[in-house]
């Protein structure tokens, strides 16, 4: 028989009426339950926001991006493309050039990032789910089309289905000394607006997609590219393909997966999640003060019982374990109820979106949540540590009660 657990359970389930100690124990249990529920929900919301950001960027960013470690561009040869294509797991290679440029539509102007992509970009099927108007095409015979963001379309007042007025794109030339003609300062090219996409505000405001040959002529590039975007085969893990590419290309290139392309943002979310965990753990610690007071008062009330146990041969360690077990019963009972309530609320939020973000957004309407086993593990460890710290002092004092003074 587990004597400490048996006695601690009897104390916890005491039937005495108007037992103030039991009231404090129940209040402590409720406080732990609420704190645990809040901690689990807060961590799950942070997970949901992180995954939502990943999904938003995942529909725009490539699985692997190859860029020069120094400089804006690098030279691309047929031999380089062939060697990358021979890497196991590489499915599609898209050549990319991008830079800032001024676009004009009738009397409206704005600065955007013009991203020139190869014909196989559409084979990656990254924008099809986010196309809201027009057709997903870059070329139709000899006609070139630009795929623009929703915010860009609204800012420039581009009418849907426009087939008459082209977009004018201006890019600065290499200015020579003595040039005074404004027409010599910029290179201008025209392209028809085509499809309209909407993903995340940053992208819809900043980017337009154009054919690669159009962008190369606009930027005055020949064999240079700003990046190569890789789509991997479904049968191969992205991390494994990334390692092979790093081995092939060496230190002159950055080989970035989707998370590494937004490393600073994801790092900020992880730090924010850490602080959320620490804050709610501190709230749990405050709630555990009730456990400290309950055990302290229980030790005072049960002095006679402790003295009797001592006289029957119980060691100080056994008495200490009784009160530590009592604290564990109070805390873990509250923690279990808190975890169950948290799981129920998270499930309801996941299925029905009970709590809205409070703003009109076609991308995200309700707070996203995602439950992870590690969060429950860290929450449990936090509760164990806090419970031990709150229970140790009262248990130690109770174990020092003298027989002669309490019998």
UniProtKB/TrEMBL annotation:
MacB-like periplasmic core domain sequence ranges: 27-247
A Pfam family of this chain: FtsX
Subcellular location, record wording:
Cell membrane
Principal location class: membrane
State the UniProt keywords alphabetically.
Cell membrane, Membrane, Transmembrane, Transmembrane helix
Q: How does it sit in the membrane?
A: Multi-pass membrane protein
- Lineage: superkingdom: Bacteria
**Keyword Transmembrane helix: yes or no?**
yes
* Domain ABC3 transporter permease C-terminal residue range list: 278-401
Residue stretches spanning the membrane: 20-46, 274-300, 321-348, 376-392
The record's section on InterPro entries has: ABC3_permease_C, Lipoprotein-release_system, MacB_PCD
Give the family this protein belongs to, as stated in its UniProt record. Belongs to the ABC-4 integral membrane protein family. LolC/E subfamily.
What is this protein's name? Answer: FtsX-like permease family protein
Species source reads: Agaribacillus aureus
